[in-house]
Amino acid sequence: MGSEDSTMKLKLTLDSLTVILYCGDLIPTDIDPLTDDEWANVEAVLSKQNKDVSALIGMRYEAMTQILGIDERIAGKMIARAQLLPDLFHALHNMENEHIHVTTKYEDDYPEQLRRLDSRMPLVLYSSGNLSLIDDRVISVAGPQNTTRHLNFATKNIVTKACDEGRALAASNNKGVEEYAVRMMLRCGGKVILFVSDHMLDNARKYKKQIREGQMVLLCAVDPYAYFNVTHTLDRNIYICGLSSMQIVVGSKINSGATWFTAVQNLHYHWTRLLVLHRMTPDEYYSGNLRLVELGAVPVTRDNLLSLMSFDDIIERNQPVVNDDVVIDQMSIFEFLPEE
Hints:
Elements: H1 3-8, H2 14-23, H3 36-48, H4 61-68, H5 72-82, H6 85-97, E1 101-104, E2 124-128, E3 139-142, H7 149-164, E4 169-171, H8 177-187, E5 192-196, H9 200-206, H10 208-212, E6 216-220, H11 230-243, E7 246-249, H12 258-269, E8 273-277, H13 286-295, E9 298-300, H14 302-306, H15 311-317
Parallel strand pairs: 3-4, 3-7, 4-5, 5-6, 7-8, 8-9
Antiparallel strand pairs: 1-2, 2-6
């Protein structure tokens, strides 16, 4: 990371500083940040007043509640967070020293693809590497943490086809299918967008060479020092869908695992086009894929992957016939535990 990159890190708008102060988890403190829903309420109030969010900096409690009409409880949390402004600048300086770039939804360099998530997009985003690797042709692969020979074969062929088409791969650092997909994409010389939900700095060190050479950009929507958190991993899966023009599920179990949970959510909210392997794996993950096809996912066969067809051609040829009687919102957040 050169000096030019380092000088970019603290060039944040006042709107960005405001949202990081009130909503970010970058500052080590016991003072709770605003939730995404609470911040959305604040934005709605400010929009009615034709004010930018930066107008909140230095504003007193009475002005927030009586003039703007912000909820008293939310205003109280904001006043408590306001005292952390000096700590925020210190934390941002630490990120600069770690070569971590900080951006927010109010910045021009924020990935446009994430905006399709609307209220689910991350307010603050940390990155290491070149954000220009993210474009409208990114593909992602999802699957279980326990892989098989059949799943690896399929994953390798998916990644090879994506690499041949010049598509970048978006993935998490999960063990199993996604870890294998990342390894295969790097091996074939392709580009990787690695979105993690914990231990960002450890991953930045692990992939230092790939990041420096422009083969990978590392992303995280939580404090780069953060440890594992179930909620953060589920959110990260959604962000990967947002970055992707299409996602291929290699294997899933019905009503079990984060792969299934995210795939069904994706079909419901239409974050990206969902494809699943069909009639390829004789193992236990086959039934989940069959069900996802019934719900509207595009089936992908072995012959499709081994052919010269592009992914766009495969989607066009294999348009699913959706059963209108199928109800998608049949899952609970608890159904994804334990992970496959």
